[in-house]
Amino acid sequence: MFDGMQRRVVSLWFPRLASDRALRSRPIEGPFVLTLKQKNANRVYCLNAEAERQGLHAGMPYSDARAFCPDLRSRVADPQEDLRFLHVLRRWATQYCPWVGLEDAEGLVLDVTGSVHLFGGEEALLAEMSGKLQRAGFEVRAGLGDTRGAAWALAHYGAGVAPTGDMLCAIGALPVAALRLEARETVALQRLGLRRVSDLAAAARAPLTRRFGPGVLRRLDQALGAQPEDISPLAEAPHYGVRITLPEPIGLVDDVMAGTRRLLEQLCHKLKAQEVGARILCLTLDRVDHDSQQVELRLARPLHDPGRILPLFERGVSDIDAGFGIERLRLEATRVEDVHATQMNHVSAGRKDQLEDLITRIGTRIGLDNIQRFLPADSHIPERSFTLSSAAYCEPQSGWAPARPRPLLLFAPEPISGSGPHPPQRFRWRRMALTTGRAIGPERICPEWWLEDENWRSGLRDYWRVETQQGRRLWLFHTPQAPGWFVQGEFT
Amino acid sequence: MCGAAAFSFAFGLAARLGGQSLWIRESWETGKINPDGIADFIDPADLLLCHADSQREVLAVAEEALRSGAVTLVVMTLSKPLGLTEGRRLQLAARDGNAVGLALIPEGMGSNAAETRWRCDPVFVSRDSTLLKWELIKNKSGTLGVWYVRWDAASRRFAMVSPAGK
Asked: Entry's InterPro entries (chain B) (predicted)?
């Protein structure tokens, strides 16, 4: 009777993932380590084979490592980037089977049940995987068994393929550490004389459970197949790209816009399903002569409404050179952001949407970062009491309540001639001879000593509002600690 | 629009029109608008700033903004004289979008296409710190004139002052 297919699992272990990845981009001959600040010291995080041969090991202080090995080369480790790279490898491994999960931070586990024959058998499958990875510069150890535990044990402490059936016979000779136990448990088992997996399997179960809890025997059962263990494949990140291939090349702007509309509807459907909105859209137009043109659209806020996005494409599409015709359109949302459903408000929504569309349209012309709005900042220094930030990436904020009159225009301080604590009666500013008519002040503003500011080196400032006989109303300041008079702003 | 007090004219107009206003300038200009200073006129949250590379871009952005109808006032600072074509295009865009466009120009560089041209200067008097002199120096559809006005911060509007009262 056919009782289903025996499950087969491959475990891949990359013992030097971090250093291999670093060396792949910039190869180095000789001993090499990656360092990371751990436990308040710079320690060796990952090292290459050459460094290991010199007697170094992971976790040792970097200064010691350099003392042992003077010609050691090093770089700073980036564990996050390593993890990201492991996800890339996981995606690569889906060519062998669809069911690929991560094993810790430096391994992969593949459920290859039923896909082995496509690669010419189990030995050939492992050989192909290892060969490809080694050619790419990665040291890899692979194990294949009936269970995830057995495959892991073979990858870390043995090698090769365990024949279907009795897992105990395949991994029985391996040390107990091959069962994915904690270091403390491994040591305790060794002290009891249980050095190999077969020893552990032969021992009485009840005393072991009393001594170690259920963890040790669960790991053993998982490795031998008495207890199931699943592999959780990671979900593919949703891909926001759609395309359309045309039977006949097109060249008119209206036709391209009609094609874009169809693509947008499909794309926005996808975006809506995931509750995200596109921030940057990229429309690629492939021409008959194998040239391709791109239209990039940066939106002022994440959108998933085809009716609003489409008109914003008009300017970009009209600039396209269609040549002999366009035969393929491809639309991709290269950056998406979360958009949560909000209550509609028929009073104010229209105006706000219009403004955002305007920002997008202007942004396609002069760049989205060049459209800015004021945000209040917490400082009493006039030029630091506000910040300018890109209007597309911030919401307007209120809270503007200057306690004292401030000038409309601020500029870098312009020196004028004058002395003494009172504003000069006559002075020249921007080649104009001005006479002080009325001066209101002083208002003393102290520098913020906790911030380095080149302009406030001259110490505190006494600000005066000076109305000149000629009409100009200026904002002057005097620096008593380094005597001098300056014009910094203009009222009206 | 020219003169030393052109900024307060522009912000007073923004306060009068309400809604969003857009200020377009070339990126090399050094003087900064101070939001604390304009808080007397409008809420700084209602102001958007655009920095364009050249006057050509300034005009293109202004036309786009005027036509969209999303803003009530578009202020652009110009450094070169405005041609007839550009001026007319801006006027048509402003009519389509029902918005007001205001160009701040250096003295004597007005466009022939402009409907009106104003010169706005502060005037010194001993009692009042907000007195301005508005001079209408070009008007396609009316007569020229001079007004003396004073900014009333409480009601956020300009109040006219009789010449004798100055």
From this structure: P-loop_NTPase
